[in-house]
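Q: I'm building a small set of examples for a reading group on sequence design. Run inverse folding on the following structure and report the sequence directly after it, with nothing in between.
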C-alpha cells in the first residue's frame, strides 16, 4: 500500500500527502486526489469517510425498520399499557425519515457534513429520548426531545441556506 502511494507521489510531485486520501485496498477502492474534481460522475470513487457515513446511515435505516417492527409486534401490549404507542410510532417515523436523509447526504460525500451531523444528533436526541421514554415510562425524558427537534430544524435550515452539491 505504501509503495503504491509513493509511486503516485513520484508521478505527480505537486500533490501533497494531505491532499491524498488513503483507503484500504481490501475494499477495492483507490487513492484519489481530492484537489482535482472528477469529471466522471458515474465512476465516482469513494473515500473512507464517505463510506463510513453511508454505512452509519444504512445502519440507522435498518434500525428504524427493526424498531418499527419490534414496536408493532413484540412491544405492542407494553406500549399500549403505557399509552405510548403513538409516541413510539412518531419516534420511528422521524428516525426513518432522517436516516434516509443521512443516506442521501452521505452519497454526496463531505459537501454537507454539518447538516449530516445535525440530523444524526437529531435522531439520537429526538427519537432516542422517545424510545427510552416509551420503554421506561420516564416522562421527564420528554424534555430532551425538543433538543433533537432543534437539531433536525438546524440540519434542514443548513440545507436551505447553504446547500452544497
Amino acid at each position: 500500500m505504501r509503495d503504491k502511494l509513493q509511486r503516485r507521489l513520484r508521478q505527480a510531485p505537486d500533490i501533497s500527502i494531505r491532499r491524498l486520501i488513503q483507503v484500504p485496498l481490501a475494499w477495492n477502492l483507490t487513492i484519489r486526489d481530492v484537489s482535482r474534481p472528477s469529471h466522471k460522475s458515474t465512476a465516482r470513487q469513494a473515500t473512507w469517510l464517505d463510506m463510513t457515513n453511508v454505512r452509519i446511515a444504512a445502519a440507522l435505516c435498518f434500525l428504524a425498520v427493526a424498531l418499527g417492527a419490534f414496536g408493532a409486534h413484540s412491544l405492542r401490549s407494553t406500549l399500549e399499557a403505557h399509552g405510548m404507542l403513538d409516541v413510539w410510532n412518531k419516534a420511528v417515523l422521524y428516525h426513518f425519515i432522517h436516516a434516509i436523509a443521512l443516506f442521501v447526504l452521505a452519497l454526496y460525500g463531505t459537501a454537507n457534513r454539518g447538516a449530516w451531523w445535525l440530523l444524526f444528533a437529531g435522531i439520537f436526541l429526538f427519537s432516542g429520548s422517545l424510545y427510552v421514554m416509551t420503554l421506561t415510562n420516564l416522562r421527564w425524558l420528554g424534555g430532551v426531545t425538543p433538543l433533537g427537534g432543534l437539531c433536525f430544524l438546524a440540519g434542514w435550515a443548513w440545507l436551505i441556506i447553504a446547500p452544497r452539491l
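The chain has two domains: 2-41, 48-161.
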